[in-house]
Amino acid sequence: MNKINIAIDGPAAAGKSTIAKRVAEALRMVYVDTGAMYRAITLAHLNNQETSFKELVGQLELRLINDDGQRVLLNGEDITDRIRENDITENVSFVASQQEVREFLVQLQQLMTRDKGVVMDGRDIGTTVIPDAELKIYMIASVEERANRRLLDNAARGIVSTYDQLVADISERDHLDMTRDISPLSKAEDAIQIDTTGLTIDKVTERILALAEEKLQ
Ligand SMILES: Nc1ncnc2c1ncn2[C@@H]1O[C@H](COP(=O)(O)OP(=O)(O)O)[C@@H](O)[C@H]1O
Ligand SMILES: Nc1ccn([C@@H]2O[C@H](COP(=O)(O)OP(=O)(O)O)[C@@H](O)[C@H]2O)c(=O)n1
Predict the structure, then answer these.
(1) What InterPro entries does the database record attribute to this sequence (predicted)?
(2) 210 marked as part of a ligand binding site
(3) Does the annotation place 203 within a ligand binding site?
(4) The whole model's pTM is what?
């Protein structure tokens, strides 16, 4: 069987991580949520605001553990749940726009995908991190549906939020991510766009698995 990489990009709360995790499980591939890496550096920045980004990325030790999803360790501490909180979400697009941060993480992500067999989700995976990925998906959904999904997500995690606040947050984050100077969020020319509005998680997973099977032949 061929070994392939799958890149899944798209705006906030489109369902990328959920689907990427399922696809990776079904195909016994490694799942990498790159948003969690930007969130981890955002936490490090909020804890050390006087430190330059260059120095900050030089100091931190970031580990991703595949364990029914992905756990994130920053300097040995498990920060998987902490990085979903509102202060991180509010600051992550700013941190992700910094050149030193992007250079550091893109290099790390490229190392992770070098031997193939990875399903990686983010904003610049198909355009910058793995431009030669065998399968590229650009996942979208209406902002209303995405806010409703994140509202449920947050409630399950005990994070306080409202629908209106989430529509505003998601729209602002998409705008920042799409207009930043370095590798902004955009659909790679050869990516297949899937609008998940009104689709179940199973349906979207099935569609991507069918596309992946073609590449694995
Ligand atoms: N097709 C879908 N239909 C309904 N809910 C979905 C669908 N895809 C994902 N979700 C839900 O939406 C929420 C946000 O998905 P997530 O994977 O975190 O998005 P992203 O990684 O794009 O930010 C999750 O709670 C997930 O269960
Ligand atoms: N490859 C990536 C992944 C995330 N990011 C940044 O990290 C933020 C958080 O990503 P995420 O995937 O956790 O976001 P959610 O859609 O899950 O809320 C995004 O809003 C981007 O600013 C990025 O710049 N490049």
Answers:
(1) Cytidylate_kin, Cytidylate_kinase_dom, P-loop_NTPase
(2) no
(3) no
(4) 0.97
* Residue of 84, 86, 88 whose CA lies nearest to 69: 84
ipTM value > 0.95: yes
Q: How far does the centroid of ligand 2 lie from the alpha carbon of residue 95, in Å?
A: 10
Q: Which atom of ligand 2 is nearest to the CA of 96?
A: 24
* Ligand 1 neighbourhood includes 196 CB (under 6 angstroms): yes
**If residue 135 lies in a helix (H) or strand (E), which one and from where to where?**
strand 135-140
- Contact 40 CB / ligand 1 (< 6 Å): no
Does 96 show up as a binding residue in the annotation? Answer: no
Is 123:8 a contact under the CB 8 Å cutoff? no
pLDDT in tens, 66-95: 888 899 999 999 999 999 999 999 999 999
Query: Which residue out of 8, 70, 94, 123 has the highest number of ligand 2 atoms within 8 Å of its CB and is therefore the one to mutate?
Result: 123
Q: Strands across the sheet with 77-78, in order?
A: 62-66, 70-74, 77-78
Hey, what domains does the chain have and what are their CATH numbers?
5-204 (3.40.50.300)
User: For the purposes of burial, counting CB atoms within 10 Å of the CB of 130, is it exposed (0-12), middle (13-18) or buried (19 or more)?
Assistant: buried
Query: What are 127-151's pLDDT values in tens digits?
Result: 999 999 999 999 999 999 999 999 9
Closest CA to 130 of 146, 114, 141, 117: 114
Which is nearest to 123 in space by CA: 154, 83, 96, 103?
96
What confidence tens digit (pLDDT) does each residue in 190-204 have?
A: 999 999 999 999 999
